[in-house]
Amino acid sequence: MMKVVSRGMKMKMMVMVLMVIVVTEAKEYMKYKDPKQPLNARIRDLMKRMSLEEKIGQMTQIERMHVSPTLLKKYFIGSVLSGAGSSPSPKASAEEWVKMVNTFQKAALSTRLGIPIFYGADATHGNNNVYNATIFPHNIQPLSRGSEQRLHSKLEERESTTISHPALLFAEIQDGANVSKAIAKILRKKVAACAKGFVGEGGTLNGIDKNNTELDFHGLLSIHMLPYLDSIRKGFLKHKLKFRLCWKTHRIILIDLQVKSNNIPMSRIDDAVLRILRVKFTMGLFENPLADLGKPTWQPVRRSLVLLKNGKSTNQPLLPLKKDVQKVLVTGTHADNLGYQCGGWTVEWQGVKDSDPIVGTTVLNAIRKTVDPSTQVVHMINPGMDLVKPQNFSYAIIVVGEIPYAEEKGDSKNLTIIEPGPSTIRNVCRVVRCVVVIISGRPVTIEPYLDKIDALVAAWLPGTEGQGVADVLFGQYGFTGKLPRTWFKSVDQLSHECRRSTL
């Protein structure tokens, strides 16, 4: 006897079948989401699920100002970058940064495969786009310390985890190669260091930024490649530099059409995407994609100061300075200016030339906090000799140097201290014992007034922590910094070939 199934019963059966399919799909095992799986297995599993459009999205990085959650989801964008000065809002706090990064990250996680983004920043000496963040000494400073690797490991770990989010760190060329190597060791699970400013970039003609580097193969191997041998051995830049240099005119490439028309092989796309995903998995982005706040605690400036002179004779040292004196003069263009202390790549590409919008401690304010409460601290930017002489100062602290600069904007033919710095030195040091503190990103010409100075200190670019300078001037910590090369007497001594230069 044939059993007749009603139309209503058929509908119920179809619904049940659909429900089984939906539940099965919802419970489908995603190997790439399982942190217990081997790294390569996770990568392979994810890549076989990805469409061409999703792979191209992972190869794409967009500057923050052009990004929206909708755009991230539509094009499966793999990376967002904040260049110099690129912030969520003026004076954006750490909380605002966390909110913005997490908004972008949640958009990426809501896509079909939920691949998290990288968030990159030009953090040359602290993520100084974050308002009230510590701005560390510039990266010329490690050259003056014997403990550069240990110190910079701690610095970069702190700067990158204040807003704790696995990110890309773009290290500028002034970052020492050994420092970058140390960073890579300590931050594998916190910051991905990007090899940038590679072999030969420091050997341009006449030392001019972005000029050509002309050298023979022996010079390349024996001079410029030495700091990067470890990176090259590990296959950076497509196995011993077998890569296409970016000297051709920039073009917009329609990658998807190029692949579909066989102009670009799919293997080339897979090679790039595999390396991107490998870093994301290694960094733990799939398990911990969202940012959180950390607690900054460390101030390292004092360890980078270099004592260049102390006393006009060996038996008349001026340093360490006495705290309990009657009256002290603090003078110079750089004594009360956080912008000058921080240098280029601070908030903006070329830095800022005053303290706003930076939060920190100037050298002047640090001195006021350090001396005895009974000591009178007088601040004048550029006093004349007739104004200084009658006041009977116990000593003077003169803080002078360079204005902020970055890259080719800092090219100089004479390497001098900006005016009125030299005038201040001449006027003040003639009538009162003085220590001159130089704020600069490189050695500068000091010989014309060296004999007038009692003590001379290279503070480089100490960032927001002027207290570190005062700590050493007043003897709370000793001088430990050392020069890697002799400070030049005049620019005539400098070779135009960077590999033999004292800079």
Automatic annotation (TrEMBL):
Gene Ontology biological process terms from the UniProt entry? glucan catabolic process
Signal peptide residues are 1-26
Where in this chain does the record put each Glycoside hydrolase family 3 C-terminal domain? 305-495
**Domain Glycoside hydrolase family 3 N-terminal: residue ranges:** 52-140
Under catalytic activity, the entry for this protein gives: Hydrolysis of terminal, non-reducing beta-D-glucosyl residues with release of beta-D-glucose
Keywords per UniProt: Glycosidase, Hydrolase, Signal
Return the EC number. Answer: 3.2.1.21
Keyword flag Signal: yes
UniProt superkingdom:
Eukaryota
InterPro entries assigned to the protein according to its UniProt record, in alphabetical order: Cellulose_Degrad_GH3 (IPR051915), GH (IPR017853), Glyco_hydro_3_C (IPR002772), Glyco_hydro_3_C_sf (IPR036881), Glyco_hydro_3_N (IPR001764), Glyco_hydro_3_N_sf (IPR036962)
Q: Which Pfam families match?
A: Glyco_hydro_3, Glyco_hydro_3_C
Does this entry carry the keyword Isomerase?
no
The record's top EC class is hydrolase
Q: What is this protein called?
A: beta-glucosidase
